[in-house]
Structures
1.
Amino acid sequence: MSSNSLTPSGPGRSELALKSHAVGFAADSQGLYSHSQAAATQEAFLNGVHEAVRVLRRFKWVILSIVMASTLIGFAATLMSTRLYTAAVRLEIDSAAARVVQKGEVAPTEMRDFEFLRTQFELMQSRSVAERAVASLKLADDPEFTARPAPTLWSRLLSFGNARPEPTPADRTAIEKGIAGLVLANRTVRPVPGSRLVDLSYTDKNPERARLVVMALASQFIVSLRDKKFEATEYAKTFLEDQLQQLKSKLEQSDNVLIAFGEKEKIVATAPDRASIAENNLAAANAALGNLIADRIKNEQLYHQVENANDATLPQFLSNAAIASLRDRRNTLVTEYQEKQELFRSDYPAMQQVNNKIKETDKQIANEIRVIKTSLKGAYDAALAQEQEMKARVETLRAEVLDLQKRSIQYNILKHESESNRSLYDDLLQRYKEIDVAGGVGASNVFIVDPAETPKSPSWPSYSKNLGVAGALGLALGLLAAFILERLDNRVSKIEELERVSGLPTLGVVPLVEHGIGLDAEIQNHSSRLWEAYRSLATALQFASTAGLPRSLFFTSSQAAEGKSLTSFAVARHFSSLGLKVLLIDADMRRPSLHKKLGVNPGAGLSNYITGAPLEKVVFDAGTPNLWFIPAGPISPNASEMLASPRIAVLMQTVVETYDLVVVDGPPIMGLADANLLSRATEATVFVARAGKVEKHQIRAALKRLRGAHCHLLGAVFTQYKPDGGLYDDYAYSYKQGYTYGKAYDYGADQDETERERAAAREPNLIGSVKALLFK
């Protein structure tokens, strides 16, 4: 088999390649999705930051004013605040007091430091300690505490015209309770972290009084702990006295019952560690019986050993002195007989005499053995008799002990009860004596480490702290006010807001120009941003539709003074500079303004054409190459009826065939039908909105009317735009107090309106009002 046969080929290889490609594409898609999601999150975060910066830049004067006002109020309040002095004493709190005696403690010992210290802190802040301190210092006699507070403005208004009743005199207890409340309100307990130390402080207008009060609080707290121990000791003593009396009566009663029962049953009480007489007798009898049995067994063995013995070789016989003497005598006679046997014969008289002595000695030995046997038999019989008698005695004593034990059951019960009562009585009596001794010891577990000193400088007010808090509060209020004003501001000030509200693409953004700069010069200056903005708008108009630049454009806005006249003029002038034949028509039949801008003051215009004048009589040279102008003509009281004339359609058809571009400056919508009529007569409509002035509902209403007329809305132009925070540098100008929009932006504005008031009108309501007041 060749190696090529192992390589996939044909459809199988193609399928494997497709699968690999699909897996790789899925992985790449997942990676692209994760990257796009991360990029979207980052962009959303940056947009949020930019939005916050924009709001801060826009309302910076509001924020700064609120911060300054809050700081000034805090500074004034600090200057007018009463000087207060704080005196502090440091205390040490141990878990348990030093014991002079080892017993006699009534209160339980605290085991958990946290719970114990927390309890001590709460006790230190109790009203009872404050009332004790007030009573010890006699603060009820201090006129500063007992003086009646001055009536407030509200109380004076409520009591106006009515005679104030005389206050009823309060008793001393009520006065001291009221002063204790003031003391509690001005004292502070601050534990030292990680230790058993606590700082107790008190604040007062009088530094010496602050020291006295805080020392009184510390002292009275220590005294209250001692009093608590004394009260517990007294209660324990009273309780133990009552219990001792009861136990004493029970002990006497139980002893009497025990003695009476013992007399009745004839039971003699012995020591707790000793047995009764019957038990002692039984034990002695058992011991004696054991000895008698041992003696009987010994005598029985001795008797059985010698019972059948005939010779004197047994130890019992050999140890007998008589038998030993007879044996010595016999041995001597046998020795003598053997010595004489060598000389004499056995029938010799001397030999017979010796032999007879030997026989007599043997008889005496036999008699002695018989006597010993008889004595051993007697000893055995006597021991056996004694054993039998002692067994009978033991049985008798055993019966007596059993009977005594049966009769002693109730006796022992009564005896145990009596002993238990006696033990309880002894323990309570000992406890009572220990408490009596320990009750007079006044040891405490709280000690004064650092006594309070008279403060030299006030603790309140603190300029730095108060001003910092006031500034922080003012900053928070300023930020809150800024974002609230931003939410309440219904005007469109951002490009994305215009697109979201109108639903139209933004074709161009016209920036705010500096006051004092001529608009004609700015439009003609190819290096200015205003010219760049209109150039960008003209470029966007060329690509706004698939057919390219519309032959006729209609510019309108929701209300007056939004810059539509200047925009239409700038667009017409720009396209004329490109070589196109452009006709600019001022179709605002109510308040025309383009003829002033172009310097044309003819007597005829659009209104004359509608009433029958020929077209060539109303078309004028605008003074710019390739640019012609039809003014509005004399103002007519029925502008809507004139614009509804069929001659408008005839005019648009005629001029579209003659000119490359027709730009119509129409009136604002403002609830009128003029703009709707003109939008139907033109090929495309451009909506102009002024940044920071037009409101969202006005844009929606105006566009609703235009869409109701079935006109072709090409897009929107955002004019007089001033980006906050310089986020849109392509359209931004440096902002100064004297900036304005120029006369050509206004629709029907009064000529005597000051530039400063107009600039204030462009700002949000609150900022404009503040600037108008400050710079009026």
2.
Amino acid sequence: MPSVNELNDIGAPGQLTESEEVFVFPASFAQQRLWFLDKLEPGQNTYNVPFAIRLNGDLNQQALRRTLQEIVNRHEVLRTTFSEDESGKPIQLVAPEREFKLAVSDLRSYATQFRENEARRQVVEHVRQPFDLKRGPLFRASLLQVGDAEYILSLAFHHIIVDGWSWGVVLQELSALYEAYSQGKDSPLAPLSIQYGDYAAWQQDWIQGERLQGLIAFWKKQLSEAPPVLELPGDFPRPLMQTFSGAQESTVVPRSLQDALSELSQKEGVTLFMTLLSAFDLLLARYSGQNDIVVGTPISGRTRSELEGLIGFLVNTLPLRTDVSGNPTFREFLARVRETALQAYAHQDLPFERLVEELSPERDLSRSPIIQVLYIFENSTGKQKSHIGGLELIPFRGAEGTTAKFDIQFSALVNPSGLRLALTYNVDLFRPATVQRMLAHLQTFLEAMVADPEGRIGDLCLLNGAERRQLLAEFNSTEKEYRRDVLVHQLVEEQVERNPKGVAVSFNDEHLTYADLNQRSNRLAHYLRSTGVVPGSLVAICMERSMEMVVSVLATLKSGAAYVPLDPEYPKDRLAFMLEDSQAAVLLTQERIRGELDFGSTPVLCVDASWGEISTHSDDNPKNLATPEDLVYVIYTSGSTGKPKGVCLPHRCLTNLLYWQLESSHASVGDRTLQFTSLSFDVSFQEIFSTLSSGGSLVLISESTRRDGRALLQYLKQHSVARLFQPFVALQQIAEAACEEHDLPTSLREVITAGEQLKITTQIASFFERLPGCKLFNHYGPSETHVVTSY
């Protein structure tokens, strides 16, 4: 860094343009980046920097106005706007001194109980109003009078003219000037020796040539073959474009742990900054599964005393790359982190923006280049001024909102009350519970480190005692005392006894009560037994979605046999293979299908055409001959990797599945479930029997309506469907159709997806936002080990 004389020689007084009466300076590298981002998305408030304080006491408003005016007069950057030169590069335009306006609002006309909310509303509106970088001003202030001796001062800046350090400068000067002016004294502050424009001009002149090439060479070597992204597992799919909606979770470290960390740092010759960074690096390595971790950290950029009193955007970002491989001891790992940090400090003058330009990483609009995680360390152990000129100063929190410019930002604040750790996170990537767990894991790491510095980092336990019990015991405690001797169809028979007149199945204007369904199924079951069907037999069912289809499935189980579903839409040769491979004892079908398909030598029964003969058999429940180990169905795979294979499942595991489904369902007794999927898809079993074994009503649908998203939506509304099983593709089709519909099926209580990985698209998200009473679950995995996720 050059001396103050060199800064003055390079930067002052700037180039005066007579036509506009402004001084012109080049934009700093950091300002160039924000200028570019503003041009990319103009009118955003992402980079608004708010400060608000409560002032209690007898406020001298004239002294406050004069104070703010003097601060603007002292700092040219507060009178700066931005334009472009002939080559298109951004430049700073510094206006001459001019009157600064303080907006004042008196809220005492509001009822006392409403003043605080109105004050917060106005502060939020004030600090979030976008700035125009070309027209300015880029600093504004508002004073709200809440009571006779209670005020809120709200200051808002664009980040292009300030950084975090600048607020300390503002507060220091505000205090000194207000105390002087309120007593009728002159300013006690010495004139500034340099301005931000001088710094920007120096930066452009000094960081070039051999010096620039040396810095670039270091950072290129430092980041050579570094992973382009830190793959932290998120709770939600990453948006296509980076978002900045943030929230924060925090915790205060116990004093005993804070003291132990300070003692460890002192013994190892490192700073507390380095010790906490080491723990954070290890946490990121565990979460991401990567051994090469790149974390960004801001550095003030004020390496000379002359720069400490400037308001401006001087902060730079340093990428700290840490090698987590080799399973060193924590003491050895601390030494690695120390060396990384010291090397970065020694080469801190290369602006991060210039580094990104040199490395030219592959552009990804969904995340920040090079750095996706930031680490901030603040030491505020000094005494903070709480009174000025007879006024009590109290921070006004919560009105500024939270933005997340990175996936995760870890902040460590040391102050008189202790060590506060916070994680600011992107809400479009993480849930609050996930971030709270990360904080708990970080503290667990810290405790393990101070307890055994000689321990290997690979042996450090991420989980606390409660989580270990949950992982090893509770998650594996899956035993349930289900009725082991009950069969699937017996669960339906129990519902017949409870509610014989309830509607079991409906199709358009037709319906069957539970008594009707049971009676018809019993007659067909007795008929099947009369043809020689016994437990262990297979009964093929090739039908369109209909009342006969549901009756045939239930009757097959009552006969003691298992059903083999055959989709009439399948190719003929595939149906022929499945019939031959299964050696079905009989095929149940419909008259209109029999004439279209060739079923070979398999005995065929057209249930609709033969009902007269079938109905002569008993309508009593057949005596049960099957056991829990006998099969319920044999469903053939698609054959995409070869010949279709029959998957056989017995009553035992499927009754367990039904019990689990009924326990986890949000549907109420009697709710309607749409029978959407083909009988050849295993989810159809859940649709049919989770409904009929719980006293619900199964709603059938025609194939044409099933394939038309808009017609399907109307059908769901018309029949008050509460539960829906859908593959992702079909759910997406419905969601897209819903975008064009005003009225949605508000009867829906739960939608269950299965068969393929669920993606929360914009349309699906919108669909469920418009149906707040409906839950979305994803069943993705083997039938006995479902993973359920609520949207």
